[in-house]
Give the backbone structure.
Amino acid sequence: MRLRPHPWILAWLVLLAATGTYVASHARLVTDMSQFLPTGASPLQTILLEQVRTGAASRLLLLAVDGAEPVKLAQASRELRRRAEASGLFDMVQNGAEQWTPAQQPLLFSYRYLLNDRVDAVYFSSASLHAALQRQLRILTSSMVALPLNDVQADPTSAYLDYLLSLRPPSSPEQQHDVWFSKDGTQALLVARTVAPAFSLEAQQQVMSFLGSVMQQDPLLQPLHLQFSGPALFAQQAKDLIAGEVSRISLLTTVLMLAFLTLVFRNLSLVLLSALPLVSGLLAAVAVVTAWYGALHGITLAFGATLVGVAVDYPTHLFAHKAPQEAAALTMARIWPTLRLGLVTTVIGYFAMLFSDFTGLVQLGLFACVGLTVAVLVTRWLLPLLVPASWSVRWRGTALDPLLRPRRALRIALWLVAGAALLFILGDRQIWEEDIASLNPEQKAQKNLDRHLRDQLGAPDTRHFILVSAASDEALLQRSEQLRPLLDALVNDGVIRHYEIISRYLASQARQRQRQQAIPAVDALAANLRQGLADLPFRADAFAGFVTAAQASRQLPPLTLAEFRRTALGQQVDNLVFRHGDQWFGLVPLVNISDYAALEQRLATMAAAQDVVLLDLKAQSNQLMSGYRDHALGLAAIGAVGIFLALLLGLRSLPGALRVFLPTAAAALVTTLCLLLLGERLHLLHLASLLLVIGIGMDYSLFFQRHQDAGEERAQTLRALLICAMTTILVFGILAFAVTPVLHAIGLTVSLGTLLSFLYAVYSAPRVAAAD
Amino acid sequence: MKIRSLGCLLLLAWPWPLLAADDGDITALLARFAQHREFVGEFKEYKTSGLLAHTLELEGQLIYRAPAYLEKHIHKPYDERQIIDGDQVILEHAGEPRRTLSLTSVPEMKIVVDSLRATLAGDAAALRANYRVQKLAQADGWHLRLTPRDAAVEESVREIHISGNDIGIREFRIVQTAGGESRVVIAPGS
């Protein structure tokens, strides 16, 4: 290749080098969906989302060990817990082997009368004591092995045991050999909480590799099999899955595209040159978005890849329209008005996005505008300098030409289909995907495992919450206590199955003092006990320890939240209470809601006060997403008007503008129809891909509508369009087979859309004059 | 959350049925138990505890059906049926709702019950897996002492004694680690 030291080439090389250096040193990819979402939510929502994103629940890992006899699995469970605790990677590891006897938990045992919800004045009456002692007698009589003597003597009313039992969820895990097991006894279960936040993918990767190496190296854990699940793992796997698929598919498409273009152009240099606009455009777009936002979102980049579809078309137009021995600059001069109008109309479609409030859409719009503009500029000013006049495409596809003649019947059919598509889309209420979760890669096995483990461990899902806020921890505990009668009534009425709440674990100091006052003085209590023992076969002095312990409870300072969190139970309330600045928040996870409307209605009285809010996280993020989508749709409509105006200005003819606009719009409509018929539910990325389809279709129609009468020109255009369409369909057709929903949506929409755009551009318009 | 005490509460006394025995070694003794597929008999139980001023007395009926059905029907001092059928535990107390639970969810109880079933089935190997089994001298008949191998079981059960004559089991005694014991005397039923 003979390069002339043209100033534009130098300028381009310098710019390319500078941009490349900048991108290499600054570009940072973020995959966190919440950063891509709008921040217009209420401050409370922001705090909650933050808590859900980084709080205790998001750092949970559920683990299952299987592959051996229960005895061996139990041993493995203990070993895994020991190793995990020693690693420093976890701030909590539980496997059911926690010890709760009074001797092991002296602090909780000593506070039993202050922690137990049933303690009131009646609790210590002679009648209540008599009933409790009868219960003890029955246990002693029926069972083979009684409680340790000391514990019964000090706690004949089972205040401590009852307290612990009251904390159990309705479905707590099975136990074998003192550790948690799945119901079928094949898996030992553990729960661990990582120190690192879920979104810190590097730190989470460290956790995963720690678990992997422990399982491989520890002799006690061999040859067992470990499965685990948790929010962090989901994020990690989604990222790995998308990254893996993107690299596999881009490698495959690059190879296929190069092979196809080589086949068509019969010239490797031309093939390499045709990549220049694309590479320059992508680099520039990444650089500008990074400079503007500090980081590039994964979705923006995934979308950016779709620009390949248009950017490769620009050099193809140049090469395919170039006559043998014609200077490339002359060819460019011929097609430039069309190319320019094509660029302007495509960019207008994305330009509207720049005025969005949503960061994500602005990023997409900016990326597309910059990328396409740079690609066209490189095609316009650089490529003609690099393509010698002697080069041209030796087209072997002339046999196809007769096929591409306009046909009246086909034209009518195409317009009928377009009309039907419009009616169908207008009539279909179910065209939008409302579930944001479906945008994540389908990890069915992982989701099933997660559901299985949550079910076996009795862990609540993290979808429905009540959020309680207060100015202090004590105020929060008191407010939570006020909520409990209502929540208990909801459980009794079957509206919810269960709820977790901080005040199940720890009473407010005020209530603890009330309970202290309910404990009778020593003489009165001793008298009540004497009366309670009447007619029972117990020794008169059997429960002397009880009177002493109850008296000691009266003198205890109420247990504070800070102290409670240092006990063995403290870990379990970490995701139920958190502090944000001066505010305290209590999370109340709700399990198995059977009647959401009833729940809302009955909470309304409490929620009328601003400090109690019912939240459905999934609905909220879906709401955010559909708001996002509707907004994008509105912008796209404005963009469409802009495109039409640009066409009108560029072509200076209303029929001309309509001849370009209508086939493009029809192709987009029929693409949408096909997507719906294929069972797709549309979301934001379909919408963005349709914008691209419109850009592509506009180019096709524009090229096709010029020089109606020139036979050779028409043949060249047909060639160019055929090559463009086949390249795009090849690349995006492969993407359509991706399992990652985002990639699949882009691939399917663009490949279908390109095919239809081609059909509509070639066949839908009546020819003004026959060339043959 | 692990509540060991709950398991202890539910540990039920399971007497062995009357079984023929001779002076052979333990395996031979157990092997003869295996021939008995069903048993029904009356029992009297005597319980002592540091909490009690005097010994508690219970009486009722015992039923065993091979391979996995055990029933203790208490008639006095109240009416209560405790049934273990396979992995299912059923508790019926007069005037209260019937309760069921999984034997697996109460490991201490399971290991005791499994050992009892092993004895009834004459499976010496299974019995030895959970207990150290010793044969003690006894003037008329035989006497086995079972000591739990599992530390968790040992926290509640110190040892179990089973004795009988050539007609079958006459008595078993569970000595609790916490103090106190339970002695069950069996009379052949009709």
Q: What stands out?
A: Residues 2 and 106 of chain B are 10 Å apart (CA to CA). Residues 1-24 of chain B have pLDDT under 50 and may be disordered. Helices of chain B lie at 4-10, 26-33, 107-121, 124-130, 151-154.
